[in-house]
Amino acid sequence: MSKARIALVGMPNTGKSTLFNRLSGASAQVGNWPGMTVELESARLLVGARMVELVDLPGLNNLHGFSEDERIARHFLETQAIDALIVVLNATQIERQLAFALQIKRLGLPIILVLNMADEAIRRSVIIDRDALEKALGCPVCLISAKYGHGIQGVRHALETLLHHNTTTPRTPLHQALHEDDAIEAESAALLAHAVRSPQTPAATWTDRIDNILLHPWLGIVAFFVILLGLFQIVYSVGAPLQELLGEALEAAKTQWLIPAAAHLPAPIASFLLDGLFDGVGTVATFLPIILTFYLVMSAVEDSGYMARAAFLMDALMSRMGLDGRAFVMQIMGFGCNVPAIMGTRILRNPLQRRLSMLIIPFSLCSARLQVFLFFTTAIFSPQAAPWVLLSFYVLSFLVAFASAWVWRGRVGEQEPLIMELPPYRSPTFSYLALQSLREAGQFLRGAGGFIIAGVAIIWLLTHLPWGVEPASAASWAGQLAAITTPIFAPLGIDTLLSISLMFGFVAKEIVIGALAVIYGAGPNELTGVLARSMDWRQAYSFMLFTLLYTPCLATLAAIRRESRSLRFTVASTLWSLAIAWLASFAFYQTALLF
Ligand SMILES: Nc1nc2c(ncn2[C@@H]2O[C@H](COP(=O)(O)OP(=O)(O)OP(=O)(O)O)[C@@H](O)[C@H]2O)c(=O)[nH]1
Ligand SMILES: [Mg+2]
User: Fold this and answer.
1) 496 lies in a domain?
2) Helices assigned H by DSSP within 361-410
């Protein structure tokens, strides 16, 4: 039997990706933020004896939607062969979402209607007569709770029955289905009156109580910074000791086993393996616990529903810079990695606003840069000062991003007011958080792993060739190469050796620490000491400032190119960030020298 294709459609934030993961065992990104999925994701699963391709679509506000992510979903519905649709609604909002399901039903494809978040519906006393709906609509209706896995079996069963009886139905073209809005509204109202009972005045929830503080005009801003501070306090206090421990373990493994084992190898090969690959990759690997902790905390924030509050809170400020509150959320999402944040701009409808947002996302302090900063701040600054130095980079990251937007805001033109729904706060489940952070760590290894290995290998070659010269000295290839760039970096207080790591950092910031380990010939646990001896705080801060502001990595550039569809814009934004990085480091270093 042929493979069937089934797509999940619904309004944003209704739990499509959660159900997708439940049904297929995949690990698509889930978050309490309308616009989490901006791409098609697909997975295969077996339904009865039939192989099914399940496709998770970005949320649609309605079939008229025209932001980029909605266009992707619409285009899929219009052009692909689809055997059935699973329409996912938020049961607590059935009054507003049922019309959407009716709109989809007009497409003429077989559908299964899934009313998700049954747990919340019960808590809010929204009562749905499933049987009445099923009878009136003539399609299977499932009341489920995807997050907690309730009712999933029912969906599977409905799918199986549907595929079993599937006779290909002729489809109604999308544009035709769109011309029935009034009829749909009437039908929806009749159905609701018949099958749904919800309380007249909803009771005040704890979401409202929390929002009184978090959405307060100034208390909310204070709360935001407290949350931010708490976020990296956790990363610091949990991740940093683990990193040190891992460094010590790797160092011990090197001296006890690897050095003796490599004793009989020719010197260049032993040096390449130990001082190149092991030191470089090992030093980067010590950051895995920090990356894991970091993503755990970020996923918890994303899944809590706070992002939508941040968007709301910052909307007024952002609109002075030609953007809206959602662009602020993209800056925060960039804390993890700039690439998904750039893709997340698809939810912005105005293409010029999208570009403006893409211009400033690369200034967001991503987790790869965080590695560099954690390393340098602990190496150079006192334990008391280090967290504050780190906080200063988060603040600077926002300031430079905002200033950039402010400079270019005039290009955006007419702005629409932000209309966004605030989802209720939801507590993340542990299993989901564990899954998510493992996924991110896996992505980190897959994505950056190759770059890191290749990067440290090339750096070893550059610093140790021609064989026989003092490693990383002026006579080495790296030394000769750096001589060319010295005039550019010397006024910033960034010396020859450091500037080499910055060149590699252009490819990916994950390489920087590994590169430094190889350049300074230091093992996974020695680099902090070596750095502390070889530079003062001004040079270190200037180096970090440059790292914060210049191009994050090639992957980000590729994402900007893909999403903006403009090489000119990509080049211009790269030059913009390089220029700002140089000027900021120059101004800082030259001023700091006066003290
Ligand atoms: N309480 C409750 N929360 C749920 C349930 N299903 C999903 N969620 C939460 O709802 C939020 C949105 O889930 P997603 O699966 O990302 O929703 P989506 O429809 O894919 O959203 P977009 O991709 O943005 O369109 C997340 O915080 C989920 O944890 C449920 O059954 N009950
Ligand atoms: Mg989704």
Assistant:
1) yes
2) 367-380, 386-408
What integer pLDDT is reported at residue 144 of this predicted model?
A: 97
Residue 85 has pLDDT above 90, yes or no: yes
Mean pLDDT of 224-229: 85
Pairing of strands 4-10, 50-56: parallel
Q: Is any ligand 1 atom within 6 A of the Cβ of residue 344?
A: no
Final residue belonging to a domain, choices 134, 165, 197: 197
Q: Report if residue 421 sits inside a domain.
A: no
> Residue 176: which pLDDT band, with cuts at 50, 70 and 90?
low
pLDDT band at 450; cut points 50, 70, 90: confident
CA 26 to ligand 1 centroid distance, Å: 15
- The number of the ligand nearest the C-alpha atom of 307 reads 1
CATH number at residue 159: 3.40.50.300
Instruction: Please state the atom number of ligand 1 nearest to the C-alpha of residue 429.
Output: 29
Question: Could you tell me the distance, in angstroms and rounded to a whole number, from the CA of residue 14 to the centre of ligand 1?
Answer: 5
342/451 same-domain check:
yes
Q: Please tell me if the CB atom of residue 428 comes closer than 6 angstroms to any atom of ligand 1.
A: no
Q: Are residues 443 and 560 in the same domain?
A: yes
**b/e 289-324 (16+ beta carbons within 10 angstroms → b):** bbbbbbbbbbbbbbbbbbbbbbbbbbbeebbebbbb
Higher local confidence (pLDDT), 99 or 206: 99
Q: How far is the CA of 37 from the centre of ligand 2 (A)?
A: 4
How far is residue 460 CA from its own chain's centroid?
32
Residue 209 lies in a domain: no
Of 52, 244, 242, 239, whose CA–CA distance to 159 is shortest?
52
pLDDT given for residue 465 in this prediction: 84
- For the chain, the domain total comes to 2
- Are 190 and 259 part of one and the same domain? no
Q: Does 104 share its domain with 152?
A: yes
Residue-number span of the structural domain to which 42 is assigned = 4-197
Q: Whose CA is nearest to atom 17 of ligand 1?
A: 15
